[in-house]
Amino acid sequence: MTDFDTMAKPLAAALVARGYETLTPVQQAMLAPDVQQSDLLVSAQTGSGKTVAFGIAIAPTLLGTAERLGHAGLPLGLIVAPTRELAMQVKRELEWLYRETGARIGSCVGGMDMRSERRALADGAHIVVGTPGRLRDHITRGSLDMSEIRAIVLDEADEMLDLGFRDDLEFILAAAPEERRTLMFSATVPPQIAQLAKRFQRDAQRITVAGESAQHSDIEYQQILVAPADRENAIINTLLFFDSDNTIIFCHTREAVKHLAARLANRGFAVVALSGELSQAERTNALQSMRDGRARVCVATDVAARGIDLPNLGLVIHADLPTNPDTLLHRSGRTGRAGRKGICTLIVPYHRRGVAARVLRMARLTAATVPAPTAADIERHNHERILDDPGLSQAPGEDELALVGELMKMHSAENIAAAYLRLQLAARPAPEELLDAPAFPERGQREPRGERKERGDAAPRERSDFTDGVWFRVSVGRKHRADPKWLLPMICKAGHVTKRAVGSIKIQDAFTLFEIAGDKAEAFKAAIKENGTGEKGVSIQPADGKPPHGGEQRRAEEAQQTSWSPKKGKPKPDSAPKKPKTKPRWKKSKGA
Fold first, then answer.
1. End-to-end alpha-carbon separation of the chain, Å?
2. Under CATH, which number does the domain 3-213 receive?
3. 20 to 30 A Cα–Cα from 440, which one of 28, 472, 480, 537?
């Protein structure tokens, strides 16, 4: 007996037609005889097939012994989801799953026309899917009658509480009949969820599927160490190397999303942006373009991408490092869903590799450290994809034979193949050239003390290996409270170099001298000439010869002037400018 034999026949037929061969663990758990009429508190990882699972779970309650639902009147089932995108996604999933039952499924989500929703509810719906705030509005206005509800599902219950929907959820649950089933699905079960379950569920069965040690087992994690200035170039090369049907790139802020999406669009990628500042129509259009193939890359913030499930999403890129393990798991869970394999790549600037290691460790995940794909790697992969193109093995159709024959008469096979190759390569954006990455030790290994000093991981000191070093001068010094902890990152960022390329740093009263490795000096000089330092009022210039000493140093310090006004947390002038002296007021003597 298969899994499908124990569920309602219409749902089994829909799953077979959809291409399902087996069920995921959480879906199988919904078929146990002792859970089919019980309240449930289910915790399962993101991407485990929870939507189909609760669709299977409520089917016996909605259908009973029948195979089709009757005339649509008042709603029998209610699904509550945290976001508009997730609610609409659940609606689409239930539509194909319940198609053979004749179910009418309505939606009530924020950002949509409320009058249209009221008309749809008045026409009748078997199942309603909505967001907490909009559902509460409909209940308050009387357009959503809860008197016939048999089952309520809270999808992603922990996220709804995190987003501040507790009052709305309690209002919705209190408005439903007491003799109903309440099913809560959540990735985790924090105390707030346990309290909600205790208050609104009756003898709920606790079901936990896929322990933490097995989470995201279908996702391959990797981290790419890059120079800070190479972050976007590494993202472009990663997209070209994997050439995934669908990719999501996560950024922290709306501005970062707009910037990166514009950069990728300029480079020839079919890209859409997804952030909280977009209207509901714009967000819906962006996701639809990903689903129908008009776009292949989505750049998104965390909030906008909650609960999104895109078909063929094979790659997730963290352009900005997640700040905590929950964010990492949530982002990564967009791929590797329902048994499909996925790849998750973290773009890690050199100076933030410790942060990445800590977040991965807290999430109990292991990521392989790999170099960013080079132009040669991408070219090799492109050649392989072109040679393995399935279209090359297909015989021409009857409607194509005439034109194929004309082409063969007019042009040689070699010329036709060359034209095909040029078209294929022209359709792909060109890769970026990346800076050479320094060698970092594997985790658990420790470098010799001398090598750590050479890399500059500790405070820079005098270095004897910089025999061909070139000296530069930065326009802040001891009296501006210049400090190596601030100077070194600024120098590396401004000149696109790593700590290893920086030698001695000599902080003087009015300025600071520092040494750059000879093989990096010309590139460093070009970088600071083009981009400056990134700090207002701070400049870097080549220093002629060796560092000055004695009287020469004092004269240089006296001649050095700066109008630098530091930001908070940066070096500060040691004193405020003095007020100009005023002329003395002489009293007139009597009789003068």
1. 124
2. 3.40.50.300
3. 472
